[in-house]
Amino acid sequence: MKIKTAAVIGAGTMGAAIAAQLANAGIPTLLLDIPLPDKPDRNFLAKAGIERAKAASPAAFMDPANAQLIRVGNLEDDLTKLAEADWIVEAVLEKLEVKRELWEKVERVAKPTAIISSNSSGIPMRLQVEGRSADFRRRFVGTHFFNPPRYLHLLEVIPTDDTAPEVVEAISRFGDQRLGKGIVVANDVPGFVANRIGVYGMIRTMQHMHAQGLTPDVVDVLTGPVLGRPKSASFRTADLSGLDIIYHVANDLQRVTPEDEDFTLPDFLVRLVEERQWLGDKTGQGFYKKVKEGGKSVILTLNLETFEYENKGKLRLAALEEIRNQPLPERIRALYALPGPEGEFLRAVMRDLFWYAAKMAGHVSGSIVDIDNALKWGFGWEMGPFETMDVLGADRVIQDLEAEGRALPAILEAMRAQGRTQFYSAAEVITPTGVIERYQAPYLILRDLKKDPEKVVVSRPGASLLDIGDGVLLLEFHSKMNSLGEDAIRLFDTAHKKVQELGYAGLVVGNQGENFSAGANLPLILMNAQNGDFDEIDLAIRQFQRATTSLRFSPHPTVVAPFNLTLGGGCEMALHADFVQASAETYMGLVEVGVGLIPGGGGTKELYLRMVDALLPGETLLPAVQKAFETIALAKVSTSAQHARKLGFLRDHDGITMNRDRLLEDAKRKVLELAVDYVQPQMRQDIPVMGADGIAAIKSALYGMVEGGYASEYDREVSLHVAHILCGGNITHRNARVSEQHLLDLEREAFLTLCGKRKTQERIAHMLKTGKPLRN
């Protein structure tokens, strides 16, 4: 059951976004919807769905050109085209009769090997296919995406009793490896896994807020990043999701769940939906409202007593200041012990979550790992409920739940009977029935690997060297934002020596943090510049250039595995690798000009080389200079790995991994592939450059930008340093050629010069303070 083509039925927000993600994966997709009687274009809804996906923010398409893989049609004229699809997924109205009528039509035209699935978030899968043939039911399965499908990792796969195991296996494998999803196999029960537990937690959070006399803004501070949850926390997430959606889902679950599962909506939410129709972002106001005050955007908070919006400014809770920068496990323990109404609220919310997740174990899924993953992948939590209980100690949680008079769910009874305090231990996990099973993730997880001291070759505070198996070493960054400080830079030399001395096949540079690397250690650069320690900066640049170029010119293959933010020095690492295996979600760019600097680790040189190598025979150098200059001077950052190819940060032969969890495994495989007949490259000595003529051309263009108000005088000064490097310096003779080392020396000189400029130091200081560039 290989999926090479797909069809999506329903071109609403969700259906169009699913089609876009299929196109992102390179799958030709048919998008169908009903024809509208008042529209002459019978494919109007499908076309509108694609246009909405193109305009979506955040972007649904990794590359706008991917939209070309989607054909449009309608369910009357083009129904028979479904026969071409290997996978047919519906995303139509959440009405049982509508879905049943659709499946009756689909069964008549779908090919006998096609997988059929529903994206329903609530209607039981088994009810949808009542009356369908045994063969159709065998190929039918639920596939519940989370919105937006490109960015939210979770895909719940929901088989019925009739679904064939090979269908579950095929759609799970495709969702994982081609669509980049984290797969959770859910039981066919109301709410499945993530929504069943997540919506329960959301409603109980609202109830406990009211009981403790707190307000939405206070709750969002308590339940956001400090608790390992997204910045949108609780009430901002509700606004983003749509209060009407929460209203309907909670009411539906209230009707079909036992009495002790309290999904009762608080009065203020009912009033917002039924009386005011303030549904969150879709209506411009919900628990929060964005307005303009004094020319600036201001977020107002709804007063739930008066139903008036108030400007409360940025809220900070003194009780959180001491703990917010601690590691997450320590923060969780501190929050659980917090005094006052905030602490009472957090303990009540957490205990509800623990009790309900334990109660649902075995009901919504046969695996607590799937429950934890569903909450992490579907709602962006750093830890699932069972992982969180492990932090506090399951024995303590059990004691607290019993003190409240709660009946313990079966898995907690089993934990107590066995004297266990942890759901997870080593490579074992407890099942909902209390049986201990071996567990191994289907991909490499560094935190588990590092528990084996034999796998840790070198460990430093900012970086480590790990044996990831099969004769491959990994250089991992783990500093704040994975900035490239002294630990990381010095470890490159050690890493290459270890590969050679110990007979490894090669080296991967990667990690499993939040971002690959945000670039250089700016605070250190600023401190040295302000102190006039330019010898230290010069030494640091030389070391960094030696580290980046070592990735290209070592006697063994090197593969860099970037993901998420890959900026400045992080981007320069990738540019020098023999091969890049990038996550599909990689936001890569040489952004140094934003702080008044230039890419000094070989990035300017390497990007120019790529542009030169892409020139057609007989083409002049000017287009290569212009493209490299624009990319660097405008600090362009890719919006995906596919976009990074267009900017020149990735080459056509570099790899893209859709599922970031598999990134290091894919990078390791590439090292082993390259190692078979690897030949050590040598530095180039004959790079063509334009010299003074190229600098003059860019200088002329910059003059127009300054005069037009598009750039400041200092922008021009910084940009001219970029031009100077790209053109090889002020060389006056035609057909000049220089070495890579010559361009590296020009980078180092420019970087040092700019570090000494007051306005560059102001830009660095402003970026560190505000996170935003300064245009001085």
Give a structural overview.
This protein has four domains: 6-185, NAD(P)-binding Rossmann-like Domain (Rossmann fold); 194-438, N-(1-d-carboxylethyl)-l-norvaline Dehydrogenase, domain 2 (Orthogonal Bundle); 447-590 and 639-675, 2-enoyl-CoA Hydratase, Chain A, domain 1; 592-636 and 682-776, no CATH class. The chain has 776 residues and is of the alpha/beta class. The model has no long low-confidence stretch (mean pLDDT 96). Helix 7 (194-212) crosses helix 10 (243-256) and helix 16 (385-392) packs across helix 17. It is globular, with a radius of gyration of 28 Å. The longest helix has 21 residues, at 340-360. A hairpin with an 8-residue loop joins strand 6 and strand 7. The chain has an eight-stranded mixed beta sheet.
Please sum up the structure shown.
The protein has 776 residues and is an alpha/beta fold.
Sequence-ordered SSE layout with sheet pairings:
Blueprint: E1 6-9, H1 13-24, E2 29-33, H2 44-55, E3 70-74, E4 87-90, H3 96-109, E5 115-118, H4 125-128, H5 134-138, E6 140-145, E7 154-159, H6 165-177, E8 182-185, H7 194-212, H8 216-222, H9 235-241, H10 243-256, H11 267-276, E9 288-293, E10 296-302, E11 309-310, H12 318-321, H13 328-336, H14 340-360, H15 368-379, H16 385-392, H17 394-403, H18 410-418, E12 424-425, E13 428-430, E14 436-438, H19 446-449, E15 456-459, E16 463-467, E17 472-477, H20 486-502, E18 506-509, H21 522-530, H22 534-553, E19 558-560, E20 564-567, H23 569-576, E21 579-583, E22 586-589, H24 603-613, H25 622-633, H26 641-647, E23 655-657, H27 663-675, E24 687-689, H28 692-707, H29 713-726, E25 736-738, H30 740-755, H31 758-770
Parallel strand pairs: 1-2, 1-4, 2-3, 4-5, 5-6, 7-8, 17-18, 18-19, 19-21, 20-22, 21-23
Antiparallel strand pairs: 6-7, 9-10, 10-11, 12-13, 13-14, 15-16, 16-17, 24-25
Helix pairs in contact: 1-2, 7-10, 7-14, 16-17, 20-22, 21-31, 22-23, 22-30, 24-25, 25-29, 28-29, 29-30
